[in-house]
């Protein structure tokens, strides 16, 4: 942990770092590939919409010895539609039949009671009409659209319009990947899925805004210096918040992974899958987009400005001049005398000088003194 903390401090100070912005084309390519895969999954397989969105009925039975597979056969025979059956902790069954007319619910309930050998009065039926499901779906999409519009307006006011556009692209990226995974996996889309999507959008924005805030603070007087370009400062902002993003994402993914893999997979609580999958995929995609997508897009847009182009030219010119000066100094140090000094000039004497003795000084006198 101390090594990780030291690494985070060095990243924050700019002593070490990875060049995310320079390698942005790689991240763009990866995101495009994943997005195309998600869109193909949506096109080919589509979403498995729950009864909340397409109408149907959910029958909850008391404890029975009938297996899940046999109950699915009974439900499909009595309704004429595909059924999804889950075993409950009480020993009963949750039988979900989508796309049926609610007027047939009583007939299906009676048939199930007969096949499962339980009392019909003890079977609980929750009905959702097709029109109600369609209305719920429309409200969900409207809420998502309003959320995105408000986010863009806020970011444009708090930061600038380029950051708002970058955040919007990152959000669309996260939603597309999450929905595509739902299509590929085949999990049911329910109200919990919509709640999970809205939750991960807020989390994705949290990481993005942290980087944007650091970038805004670092580029206040950027045109008054000639040391860094905008893209380089953007890259330093990503590295300065990198460990923080990794830590918060890892801590958030741990309990969600418990819901998805232990609760839904090991314990068989299938009702947790709808929200836990959207949270897990969305959190991971949100962390990725805030680091690899949002800030590099801002750098791309900003470096198209005339001021940033002029700054980049000045920075590169100064670095080229510094490189030439260093090369001249190195050449002078290693290659002999500089300038036009003659090579036969005697070197200066450094140290104590010995004065020549005076002629006939102290001759014939033991003490060496004159009289």
TrEMBL record:
One GO process term, biological-process aspect: intracellular protein transmembrane transport
Pfam families: Sec_GG (PF07549), SecD_SecF_C (PF02355)
Claim: Signal is one of the keywords in the record: no
SUPFAM superfamilies, per the entry: Multidrug efflux transporter AcrB transmembrane domain
Family: Belongs to the SecD/SecF family. SecF subfamily.
Task of the protein: Part of the Sec protein translocase complex. Interacts with the SecYEG preprotein conducting channel. SecDF uses the proton motive force (PMF) to complete protein translocation after the ATP-dependent function of SecA.
Matches recorded under HAMAP family: SecF_B
Record's protein name: Protein-export membrane protein SecF
Phylogenetic classification of the source organism: Bacteria, Bacillati, Actinomycetota, Actinomycetes, Kitasatosporales
